[in-house]
Amino acid sequence: MKNVTDSFVSLGHWPSAGSFGFNTDIFSTNLINLSVVLGVLIFFGKGVLSDLLDNRKRRILNTIRNSEELRGGAIEQLEKARARLRKVEMEADQFRVNGYSEIEREKLNLINSTSKTLEQLENYKNETIQFEQQRAINQVRQRVFQQALRGALGTLNSCLNNELHLRMISANIGMLGSMKEITD
């Protein structure tokens, strides 16, 4: 009880209700001042604060809407880019496959062409060899024939006398005459 009376005694230190003065108690004055300031702010600043918050809300919603539109556009562009990428990859694969098959075709054509050329060159070589052999054989025949003819003429000239020679010429003329009659 002594504490209760002490609290009433301490009330005597407060200034009376009708007077104006300074309150030196920091905790009680700050609380009162804060409540007064908050009350004034709420009363007068409610409209301004609600307008500011509404404007901020509209800006945020517009930003979200714009972001969603940009996101949708970006997603659409991304899908288009992916589709183009797939198309380009397919074309690249097709070019690669076609390129490889074209290379193989060209390689086979080159091999076939080269083998044909080699075969033709081999044929030309064989024909040239045969021609040269035939020419060499013909030259040898001509030389053998010429030597045989010289030998025969030499033998005939040494063995034949004038009379035998004239009979031989007459017989050959007769053979040529009979051959002429057959052909006519």
TrEMBL record:
<dbReference type="Pfam" id="PF00430">
    <property type="entry name" value="ATP-synt_B"/>
</dbReference>
<dbReference type="GO" id="GO:0046933">
    <property type="term" value="F:proton-transporting ATP synthase activity, rotational mechanism"/>
</dbReference>
<feature type="coiled-coil region">
    <location>
        <begin position="71"/>
        <end position="98"/>
    </location>
</feature>
<keyword id="KW-0472">Membrane</keyword>
<keyword id="KW-0934">Plastid</keyword>
<keyword id="KW-0375">Hydrogen ion transport</keyword>
<dbReference type="GO" id="GO:0045259">
    <property type="term" value="C:proton-transporting ATP synthase complex"/>
</dbReference>
<keyword id="KW-0138">CF(0)</keyword>
<keyword id="KW-0812">Transmembrane</keyword>
<keyword id="KW-0793">Thylakoid</keyword>
<feature type="transmembrane region" description="Helical">
    <location>
        <begin position="31"/>
        <end position="49"/>
    </location>
</feature>
<comment type="function">
    <text>F(1)F(0) ATP synthase produces ATP from ADP in the presence of a proton or sodium gradient. F-type ATPases consist of two structural domains, F(1) containing the extramembraneous catalytic core and F(0) containing the membrane proton channel, linked together by a central stalk and a peripheral stalk. During catalysis, ATP synthesis in the catalytic domain of F(1) is coupled via a rotary mechanism of the central stalk subunits to proton translocation.</text>
</comment>
<comment type="subunit">
    <text>F-type ATPases have 2 components, F(1) - the catalytic core - and F(0) - the membrane proton channel. F(1) has five subunits: alpha(3), beta(3), gamma(1), delta(1), epsilon(1). F(0) has four main subunits: a(1), b(1), b'(1) and c(10-14). The alpha and beta chains form an alternating ring which encloses part of the gamma chain. F(1) is attached to F(0) by a central stalk formed by the gamma and epsilon chains, while a peripheral stalk is formed by the delta, b and b' chains.</text>
</comment>
<comment type="function">
    <text>Component of the F(0) channel, it forms part of the peripheral stalk, linking F(1) to F(0).</text>
</comment>
<keyword id="KW-0175">Coiled coil</keyword>
<protein>
    <recommendedName>
        <fullName>ATP synthase subunit b, chloroplastic</fullName>
    </recommendedName>
</protein>
<dbReference type="GO" id="GO:0009535">
    <property type="term" value="C:chloroplast thylakoid membrane"/>
</dbReference>
<keyword id="KW-0150">Chloroplast</keyword>
<keyword id="KW-1133">Transmembrane helix</keyword>
<keyword id="KW-0813">Transport</keyword>
<keyword id="KW-0066">ATP synthesis</keyword>
<dbReference type="InterPro" id="IPR002146">
    <property type="entry name" value="ATP_synth_b/b'su_bac/chlpt"/>
</dbReference>
<comment type="similarity">
    <text>Belongs to the ATPase B chain family.</text>
</comment>
<keyword id="KW-0406">Ion transport</keyword>
